[in-house]
Amino acid sequence: MDEKLVFVKLGGSLITDKRERATLRSGVLPRMAHELREALTASPDLRVLLGHGSGSFGHWEAKRYGTRQGVTTTEQWRGFV
Question: How far apart are CA 38 and CA 69, in angstroms?
Answer without folding.
Answer: 41
